[in-house]
Specification:
Belongs to the PpiC/parvulin rotamase family. The protein has 9 helices and 6 strands; from the N terminus they run αββααααβααβαββα. α1 packs across α4, α2 packs across α3 and α5 crosses α9.
Length: 318
């Protein structure tokens, strides 16, 4: 398991999905003045200019491109998103014509969106600007120093439905048959049988408990089993054992940046809450009660997601 900071995706870090979608379809008020240096007008809708940056922000909000990725104005993707921005502006203007924006509920929703955008811009200018290459390198070096590289094991599997079938597999292997050939012929694990039962390299901490317990002290070349698992009776062969290699700086950089961003947002919110009078008007809670900001509490990752990551580890000691 990689010993580097891994955090869930909930931050105040410019998660522009809802905010920028609304921003892209609202009236900008900037007239024909380019909102960004070098920006390019790409359409006009009811006398309002649509800029290339509007389309790019919408594409980022939808997750179609990354914040730092270019979006070619001649591409099919740009044209498709441009059409969506035009549709958004037409819908927004029609809503204004019908005075849907005048209701108290609409005003509160628009104000909430404005506050979200301003908060994101504050994070961009204060927190993101403080994340330097030096800070990333420092945390990477500290994590390398603290990391205890674990061992990876490459294993092959033959899975049988019954213990009698698994015992028969052991007998065939004992006569010198190839493990790979027996796996292809007899294993009921459809995911691996055609690759000779190859499970690849993994660490014990991510294996099912039955596998980890059976393999813990077995050297390369060992045949292990049969033992019962959730899917049947398993026979394993240890192909290789090696030390897990830590990620390179570039591989670890996105996770480190997310961690530093999380820490920056948490510290910023602590400072703001320390200066402000906040009364929580809920039954059973004291007014002005000190609470950790909700945005500093990342959601627990879904257990079923292969890319889920735990909450941030504490900052390393100096």
């Amino acid at each position: 398991m990689t010993p580097f900071p891994r955090v869930s995706g909930l931050f105040l870090i410019v998660v522009l999905a809802a905010a920028l979608t609304v921003s892209a379809c609202s009236r900008g008020g900037g007239g024909d003045q380019a909102p960004e240096p070098g920006d390019r007008a790409v359409a006009r809708v009811l006398d309002e200019t649509v800029w290339a940056s509007d389309v790019k922000r919408e594409a980022v909000a939808q997750g179609l491109v990354g914040e730092g990725e270019p979006l070619d104005v001649t591409s099919d993707l740009f044209r498709r998103v441009l059409d969506e921005v035009i549709d958004q502006k037409l819908l927004a203007r029609e809503a204004e014509r019908r005075r849907l924006d005048a209701s108290p509920l609409a005003q509160r929703r628009l104000e909430a969106t404005r506050e979200r955008i301003l908060g994101d811009m504050l994070v961009e200018s204060v927190v993101n600007g403080a994340i330097s290459d030096e800070a990333v390198q420092t945390l990477y070096n500290e994590q390398l120093r603290l990391a205890k590289t674990s061992e990876e094991i490459r294993v092959r599997l033959i899975l049988s439905r019954t213990k009698a079938e698994a015992d028969a597999v052991i007998g065939i292997l004992g006569q010198g048959a190839s493990f790979e050939a027996v796996a292809m012929e007899r294993s009921v694990d459809e995911a691996t049988r055609f690759s000779g039962g190859d499970l690849g390299y993994s660490t014990l901490d991510v294996m099912p408990q039955a596998y980890a317990g059976a393999l813990r002290d077995r050297p390369a070349g060992s045949t292990v089993g049969p033992f019962q698992t959730e899917g049947g009776w398993a026979v394993l062969r240890v192909e290789d054992r090696r030390k897990e290699s830590p990620p390179t700086l570039e591989q670890a950089r996105p996770q480190i940046v997310r961690y530093l961003t999380y820490e920056g947002v948490r510290q910023l919110l602590e400072q703001l809450r320390g200066k402000a009078k906040v009364d929580v008007l809920l039954s059973g809670e004291s007014a002005g009660q000190d609470q950790e900001p909700a945005s500093a509490q990342p959601l627990a990752p879904a257990a079923s997601s292969p890319t889920s990551v735990p909450a941030p580890v504490p900052a390393p000691a100096a």
